[in-house]
Amino acid sequence: MRQISFDIDVLRTFTTGIDLGSYAKAADRLGRSTSAVSAQLKKLEEQAGAPIFRKAGRGLALTEAGQTLLGYARRLLDLNDETTSAVRGVELAGEVKLGLQEDFGEALLSDVLGRFMRAHPKVRVEICVARSTELRERVTLGRIDLALLWEGGTPALNGERVADLPLCWIGPAQDAAGPLASPLSLVLMDAPCLLRDLAETALDSAGIAWRHAFTSASLSALWAASAAGLGLTVRTPIGLPASLRIINPQEAGLPALPQIGLSLYRAQTMAGPAVNRLEELLLQAVQETVRRIAAA
Predict the structure, then answer these.
(1) Cis ω on the peptide bond leading into residue 192 (within 30° of 0)?
(2) DSSP character string of 248-274
(3) CB count in 10 Å sphere of residue 82
(4) Residue 177 pLDDT
(5) How many CA atoms lie within 13 A of 191 on its CB side?
(6) pLDDT for the residue 249
(7) CA nearest neighbour of 102 among 230, 234, 238, 214
(8) What is the pLDDT of residue 110?
(9) Model's pTM, two decimal places?
């Protein structure tokens, strides 16, 4: 059987169109004509030896072969980009100070920092894990280079909204379904906390009585308290431990929660190449996390 070598540029067009939900948008993003994109997709189907798209209403959806190809395409592109970065950035050196909220520690750090440090071993990365208010202040003062944080409103001039994620009611994984006690016991972050405010506002608007059963400045403490049955907490699905589960609000008689914005803040000083590369990897990881949540 003749071996097929997939074209990286074609795979990038393929995945970009899926991510943007439109190949017209992909053509614009990649600086290609729509006819060139169509030719690339035709070539990809020929190489795959199977249809990768099927009609779905007025649009297109992936076939089973297309779904399989998409997974491998993402892995090939990640490896290609990591290789390119490693070859071109051998001499990249310096220091990057990154600020994150506790939610992203396990979900992003191991993958992002692992890839970054393998490609750029001469760069020193310093991590600051803190709450949104503190991170926003630190990056504005130039004490950290990048900060990824939750945000309810429009970002400041040095910030950019990079994703919107669902807020969820979360309780013990083994908890039997049934009516919730009144007043509702809550396990939340110490004030000030945007997620805490959104949860309390939603309950007040629905006329549901509640009480603080446990508060803490530590996310891991919140996870443990909720898993122990002290009450419900509110977070996004990012980093959710196996000891907890997302509760369907309709089934539990709870109000639906809004989405919350995720913003990336940059120091107002000129960023160096090491900062720019780490930012690129962070954004890729956030996009992949959002895709996984949407597909769940």
Answers:
(1) yes
(2) PHHHHT-----EEEEEEEE-SSPP-HH
(3) 15
(4) 56
(5) 5
(6) 92
(7) 238
(8) 75
(9) 0.69
